Amino acid sequence: MSSFVPPSTASSLPPGTASGRRQYARCVTVPLPTATTRWRCTSCGNLTRFDVTRTSRVTEFLHLDLAGTSTVEERTVHSDVLEQVRCRWCDAVDAVELVPRADVEAELAGRAVEEAALGEARAAAADRPAGPGA
Ligand SMILES: [Zn+2]
């Protein structure tokens, strides 16, 4: 079979393209979620499913095993530009707003940590040995 396709030349600039610098058609100002906020679709209320289009430039450390399966063990992000956020439910484009995260998990985690600390303190106070037991 000779179905070998050479690397595409599609990435080369079309003839007559004088300036290599591209004009970015639109500069999307999608708010980025933070540690305390999350996206919410303003038209349908979706909180959990978005198609995100972004342009990233990264350097990755690939570690391949002897079978040839690769794992990215390190990733350095040089640039990361968010271009579009599309709602998976209603297809709205760049119609997200930031809302506070439900901090249920944070509260639970905080409580667990507190309880653990309390438990440890109690245990330490209750049966602190006078010296090394053995
Ligand atoms: Zn939506």
Topology, please?
Elements: E1 37-41, E2 50-64, E3 70-87, E4 96-100, H1 104-126
Antiparallel strand pairs: 1-4, 2-3
Bound molecules: zinc ion.
Residues 41, 43-44, 46, 87, 89-90, 92 line the site of zinc ion.
Task: Walk me through this protein's architecture.
It contains one helix and four strands; from the N terminus they run E-E-E-E-H. A two-stranded antiparallel sheet has the order 1-4. It has one helix spanning 104-126; strands at residues 37-41, 50-64, 70-87, 96-100. With 134 residues, it is of the alpha+beta class. The protein has a domain at 37-101. Mean pLDDT is 77; it is low at 8-26. It is flat.
- Distinct small molecules: zinc ion
What strand order characterises the main sheet? 1-4
Low-pLDDT runs of 5+ residues are: 8-26
Based on CA atoms alone, the radius of gyration comes out at: 26 Å
Give the biggest sheet: 2 strands, antiparallel
Residue share in helix: 10-25%
Q: What order do the SSEs take from the amino end to the carboxyl end, as H and E?
A: EEEEH
What is the molecular shape? Answer: flat
Alpha-carbon distance between the two ends: 76 Å
DSSP strand tally: 4
Could you name the key traits of this structure?
1 helix; two-stranded antiparallel ribbon; alpha+beta; 134 residues; flat; binds zinc ion; two-stranded antiparallel sheet
